[in-house]
## 1
Amino acid sequence: MTSSPVSGRRGFLLAGGALGAGTLLAGCTSNAPAGEKQDAAVSGGGDNAAPGKQVTIGFSAPAADHGWLAAMTTNARAQAEQYSDVTFNLTEGSNDVNQQIAHVETLVNQQVDVLVVLPKDGKALTNAARRAMDAGIPVVNVDRVFDSPEAYRAWIGGDNYGMGANAADFIAAELRRRGISDPVIAEIAGTDSLPLTQERSSGFRDGLSQHDLSVSRRVAADFTVESGQREAANLLQASDRIDAIWNHDDDQGIGVLAAIEAAGRDEFFLVGGAGSSTMMKHIQADNRVVKATVLYSPSMASSAVSLARLLAQGRGMAALAEHEIPRSMTTYSAVVTKANVEEYLDLGFSS
């Protein structure tokens, strides 16, 4: 790959900055008349861990029928328990959208101080969240975004496009390391109708294209063990040769690995998605086809609770100069490999 014009220009600017730093500094400090007071620089400060006023956080999420979803609720509860100034009002998870709407409305009627909502369906929950905002209850929207920005005060979620792009980069590097040219690259996606799946696939395609590679075979599962096993079996049966596979989700990856073992295939390597402890242990042992997983960590639920607490207490983030909580935060999809897996084991969740 050739260097981009931006990277070349950045190198020039860095070099110029190193040569002229003293001159630039002198020029900046001499612009004001002698004796005139300079404006103070804005900086972060405070201690977000220090107790604030007592607040009640309402939490709503879908049923924990999936390892990642279960970990989201577990992480949120555990984070709330760390704060002596937080009362955590957890509703029962449900995959019935109407029931989740009712749960959110109940929390609003209870006049909680702030809401954290991971919607089953962002579009369907938008009006309920907007009613909370209209009632003066700030909403932290987690992962699956509402249809209107007026339905939430802050959003935190994963980088689906970045997941795909980072998976592509790892696969391209590993193929080069193995000396494989003209590779057959397969993709086992999640539910195709979901925007998050579409974003992951788009990032994967775009990432591969940066390395002059493309997806050769693609199937779509449904984020379940059963669908992962079924679609992986179909993929393997239809493909005599595969060099690399990216599987979007480590929960469905349990089924994918079962299909691979049943087929007796091991000529390829597999990259997972989300970062389950099961896949991380396979990566650590290095005795299966799975060689990496791209994080989409449920730790975002812990961060959502922390943000909700600060919102309800009228505080900003101590490490940032802004006085208010940011409007949105996107987590990073790090690639976990044998070289760094020990650093990320604490983020793993049970599949």
Note: The chain has eleven helices and twelve strands.
## 2
Amino acid sequence: MFIVGLTGGIASGKSTVAERFTRLGIPVIDADALARDVVEPGQPALDQLIQTFGTDMLTPDGRLDRERLREHVFAKPEQRRALDRIMHPAIGRAMQQALQAAQGPYVILMVPLLVETGQHRLVNRVLVVDVPESVQVRRLMGRDSCDETQAKAILGAQASRDQRLAAAHDIINNEGEPATLDAAVDSLHRAYLEMATDPHARERRWQLP
């Protein structure tokens, strides 16, 4: 299976790009969705989280209070590392199962922290959805109703824009109009169809629009 790792900074438009590929009939595996699945009641990862962080991290109906857990670990590096030690293997196993079940000429693996976790080494191609940090901050403030300081702190917890771009094979600039984005995804879709069967086609790097 030819795997394209889709990533980008927060509020860059990864989900919008993924939706375009889905419309073209390409399976998209969403690591964030898998992260929610592996902490459902009865899952081993949830039991590990309770043992590590306590039952205070549960909602009254026994589900993980994701927002409370985020707040708990956000400014505590040791606690964040403990969370990663539980979540990353669980998500990795779920990801492998989803990849094995995927049907299509190629598959999109959407991982927000693809570069940060080193998972970019596990895919055939890295596609980065890119916008300037000022655009990320503005979108994040509008989307999450946070102030500029909070938005910049969230960005600071991720890989830098330069780090993502350095790992990219292909780049979509997502500042433009929806029609421009549609055209960019269509171009990459045709390229990935070719790359899936012809390794020589993988030598080209794409930057769109």
Note: The domain at 32-101 is CATH 3.40.50.300 (Rossmann fold).
## 3
Amino acid sequence: MKTVILWFRRDLRLADNPALRAAVEEAERVIPVYLHAPEEEAQWAPGGASCWWLHASLQALSQDLAAKQSRLIIRRGQSSLSLLRELIDETGAEGVYWNRLYEPLIVERDRSVKAALREQGVNAKSFRAHLLREPWEMRTGKGEPYRVFTPFWRTLAKQGDPPQPLRQPPTLRPPGQWPSRQTVAELGLLLRPRWDRKLHDLWQPGEAGAALALDHFLDGAMAVYKDGRDLPAESDTARLSPHLHFGEISPHQAWHRARARMAGQARLSEGGEAWLRQLAWREFAHHVLFEFPHSSDEPLYERWAGFPWREGYQPLLRAWQRGETGFPIVDAGMRELWATGYMHNRVRMIAASLLVKNIRAPWQEGARWFWDTLVDADLANNSMGWQWSAGSGADAAPYFRIFNPWTQSKRFDPQGRYIRRWVPELAELPDRDIHTPQASAPAILAAAGIQLGRDYPEPIIDYKTSREEALAAARAIRQS
């Protein structure tokens, strides 16, 4: 073929990009394209934090392509198929190559695009790049999709290491004449007012930033990851999730880099294996969403659709969103999220449990808030995480799990360092009191300069009563 359009989506990298490699090998000229048609994703179009990341990542990709004597053609429209047809007419392209994604609306869109392009004689081809294995390749002994992680992990592990990642092509042969393009700024991804300005100091979107983040983790925190990943005051996680979501690094690259670093170093094996298991959780989340597409909006298990959510929960939801619940570990997490576009995973579970089990707000409310505020908002991971917390989804425990925010806080942030960082009004409390200021003696609160209800809220919900109500509701669901 003379000319192929390379359709970038959430594979914003040049290394280990199968669609890019195939385009370079099979065509004389390659036209890299990014199409922005968020309406095709309906309510799951990128949220505010994700849009900030996308803006920066597209800028980085444009620079990387320029270094290869190429450029990124950006177009904005209502329909990806219409935009592709316009580009085919303008360039005479004979093929369109892309890497597959697995969210329900995107799968439906891509199938329609592939069929329509092939019908008009265009060589439309898609490739696996976003996951280690295709969702449909993973089956139980009965030939059914998985709903429980541990047997999924065993099957994945038995298949051995994934293929080695592909290298960047040395160059991309440009067309004789480039089609017109829009700028990244013209996509309007940045918010007004600029809540997201603070994110620039915390993250480096792009392929180079992803490589640096992985190096930093492999050189340091991986050795203590097995236990350290549960401590929110420490920096013992990889923080690679937004890079993986936007495809600035592939799971193949992450997997093999970790394996290479673990080789011959026993001290790294325990932490490294625990981290590879987390990559497998990402695979599992995409497997579940692909096989059960309703699970992004509805309970995976239908009986949980009748769970009795609290009437008039909206004021409690708003307090949760603002980090003003009166439960310090939860408030610290919600404030970290607002300030950084990220929340430590242990704290995500605690905060989610409070919302769906004690406040009894629908898990979809939490999922929507995380979708808009997380830089690593991923439909598969977000949906599975919230359904796990609600007890309605894949891998939910046989019992109705309710996290106690106070015992969780004392266990995983014993010195209150995480709380002091994000809830500074409690910073002067002693370690033993910072987790439960409402139980502190008046003299201790006074010495710390705190008046509950003025400087920091009382708990917005009675934990014991709300726990009993949630357990009763769950029993009713199971008995119905």
Note: The longest helix spans residues 266-291.
